[in-house]
Specification:
Elements (H helix, E strand, L loop, with lengths): L3 H16 L7 H6 L6 H12 L5 H9 L74
InterPro entries: PELPK1_2
């Protein structure tokens, strides 16, 4: 008994033999031909860069271009500043009086005695000999 994959390959080989005379592309190669994953993005970037309209020379012309003077506009009369109408005064209702709560009495916190730490001697750093200065500089 043959496996389905070997049957598939046998069928493809037979199709290749049948169509090899008429075409230059074989069916087996078409079934297994895969492009690497970077080819399509690379192709898109290449086509996008070819179709860009970079106008470096046009920027130079813009710098040298003199614009025509614009005509002055006729003087328009100034409008008065708009005034907003005053809003009516609204009386707020008074809040009912609530009795205040008595302050809670907390027990006194005992003071903790912190033991005195002995003073540690300060470390002395080693002295490094000074580097002699040379006067012969190029």
């Amino acid at each position: 008994m043959t496996s389905p994959t070997s049957l598939y390959h046998d069928t493809m080989r037979q199709l290749n033999k049948a169509f090899a005379k008429a075409t230059s592309i074989t069916v087996l190669n078409m079934a297994y031909h895969q492009y690497p994953s970077f080819v399509l993005p690379l192709l898109l970037i290449t086509l996008a860069s070819m179709s860009s309209n970079t106008l470096v020379a046009e920027a130079r012309h813009l710098l040298e271009l003199t614009l025509p003077e614009l005509p002055t506009l006729p003087h328009l009369p100034t409008l008065p500043e708009p005034e907003l109408p005053s809003l009516p005064k609204v009386e707020l209702p008074t809040l009912p009086h609530f009795p205040s709560l008595p302050e809670p009495k907390l027990p006194a916190v005992p003071e903790l005695e912190v033991p005195k730490l002995p003073e540690l001697p300060k470390p002395t750093l080693p002295t490094i000999a000074a580097i002699p200065k040379t006067t012969n500089t190029p």
